[in-house]
C-alpha cells in the first residue's frame, strides 16, 4: 500500500474541504455569526451545520463566544487562523464568478474604491504570480514530482 503525498492542501481540506464549512466561513466573513442566521443563509441542515461549526471550532478556525447566558447562546467568530482563510474564499469566489456565474452575486469593493479583482502576488518582488512563474520544491525527504522515490 502506498501512502499519499504529504500535502498542506490535503490537510487544509480536512478542515474546510466540505461545502457547508466554506459557506459557514462566507457568512462569518459577512458578519453573520449566529447559528439560526447561518443555517438560513447557507441552507445547511441543522445537524450538519452543528457538526461543521463544531469541527471549525475544534480546528481553531472559529471560536464560540457567548452572547446570552439564559438561555446559553453563542456566536461564532473567526480566530487568526479563520481570518487567514478570507483571501482563500475571495480567490475561490473570483474563480466562480469568472467561470460559473453570468453575473457575480457579490462584489467586494477595495478601499481604493475599485471593485476588487484579487491576484496572487509574490511577497518578495511584488510581481503577480501565474503558473509559468512558479516551480515546486519538495521538502519532505523521499518525495518528488513523480511521487515517493
Please tell me about this protein's structure:
This protein is of the alpha+beta class and 149 residues long. The chain is 40% helix and 11% strand. It is built from 6 helices and 4 strands; from the N terminus they run ααααββααββ. The strands form 2 sheets. A two-stranded antiparallel sheet has the order 1-2. Strands 3-4 form a two-stranded antiparallel ribbon. α2 (19-30) crosses α3 (35-42). The longest helix has 14 residues, at 86-99. The chain is globular and about 55 Å long. It starts with 7 loop residues before the first helix and ends with a strand. The model has no long low-confidence stretch (mean pLDDT 95).
What is the H-and-E element order? HHHHEEHHEE
Biggest sheet features: 2 strands, antiparallel
Report the structural category. Answer: alpha+beta
Terminus-to-terminus distance: 14 Å
Q: Low-confidence runs (pLDDT<50, min 5 residues)?
A: none
C-alpha-based Rg, rounded? 19 Å
Strand fraction equals 5-15%
What form results from the Cα inertia axes?
Answer: globular
InterPro entries: HTH_HxlR, WH-like_DNA-bd_sf, WH_DNA-bd_sf
Protein name: Helix-turn-helix transcriptional regulator
Domain HTH hxlR-type: 7-104
GO molecular function: DNA binding
Amino acid at each position: 500500500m502506498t501512502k499519499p503525498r504529504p500535502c498542506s492542501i490535503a490537510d487544509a481540506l480536512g478542515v474546510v474541504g466540505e461545502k457547508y464549512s466554506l459557506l459557514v466561513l462566507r457568512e462569518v466573513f459577512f458578519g453573520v455569526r449566529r447559528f439560526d442566521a447561518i443555517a438560513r443563509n447557507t441552507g445547511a441542515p441543522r445537524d450538519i451545520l452543528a457538526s461543521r461549526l463544531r469541527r471549525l471550532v475544534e480546528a481553531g478556525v472559529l471560536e464560540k463566544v457567548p452572547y446570552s447566558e439564559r438561555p446559553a447562546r453563542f456566536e461564532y467568530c473567526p480566530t487568526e487562523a479563520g481570518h487567514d482563510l478570507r483571501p482563500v474564499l475571495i480567490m475561490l469566489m473570483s474563480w466562480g464568478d469568472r467561470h460559473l456565474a453570468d453575473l457575480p452575486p457579490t462584489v467586494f469593493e477595495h478601499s481604493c474604491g475599485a471593485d476588487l479583482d484579487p491576484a496572487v502576488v509574490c511577497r518578495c518582488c511584488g510581481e503577480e504570480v501565474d503558473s509559468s512563474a512558479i516551480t515546486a520544491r519538495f521538502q519532505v525527504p523521499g518525495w518528488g514530482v513523480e511521487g515517493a522515490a
